[in-house]
Amino acid sequence: MWGSAVWPVTLESDDVILRPIRLRDRREWTEVRSRNAGWVGPWEATNPLRGGAPPTYADMVRSLNRQARQDSALPFVITERQDPGRVPPIVGQLTVSTIVWGSARMATLGYWVDQARAGRGIVPTAVALATDYCFSELGLHRMEINIRPENRPSLRVVEKLGFRDEGMRLKYLHINGEWADHRSFALTAEEVPEGLLNRWMSRRAR
């Protein structure tokens, strides 16, 4: 397990920055999410319990930070440098969760991005940064991403990065009010000896 030596951490590549989510991000995070309700909402995880309400922003951050202290999650916001001298604004979120140690050494990764910033390579870069960190610094072996088969923009991310399609998981997660099928994609450390970010940047430059 990693402990305080490697978390919290900030990861950067060009204009894309991953940093830990904070309670004081509430106003900016809420504004971005509200503006993207129609873009993110159809893929949003929901509470399957009858009458279950979604967590508040503060509850979400406290839960994620608790998981980080327990070495079971890496909760990031995605920020992007845009104007010199300006604090990079939040343009999305990326969470590495369900980290399993022992003989498995695997995790699951999820993300969303501001629709206005989609298609510019921000999410593939963020996913590559987080995956490389998990493989090289934390010693994880496998990264998994599960995506609704109708979510074409998200599918493009794993396609660009070369994640392996491992097939359909039926009724895998409760999404937007119902149990939904997901396609499962994975990558192991042996498949990217050069690093996922290096591979992504090489492909992007072609």
Automatic annotation (TrEMBL):
Annotated protein name in UniProt: GNAT family N-acetyltransferase
Similarity field: Belongs to the acetyltransferase family. RimJ subfamily.
Domain of life where this protein originates: Bacteria
Classification via InterPro entries: Acyl_CoA_acyltransferase (IPR016181), GNAT_dom (IPR000182), N-acetyltransferase (IPR051531)
Gene3D superfamilies: 3.40.630.30
GO cellular-component term (any): cytoplasm
Domain N-acetyltransferase: 16-190
Record-level Gene Ontology MF annotations: protein-N-terminal-alanine acetyltransferase activity
PROSITE patterns in UniProt: GNAT (PS51186)
Coiled-coil boundaries: none
Segments crossing the lipid bilayer: none
Keyword terms of this UniProt record: Acyltransferase, Transferase
Organism of this sequence: Arthrobacter zhangbolii
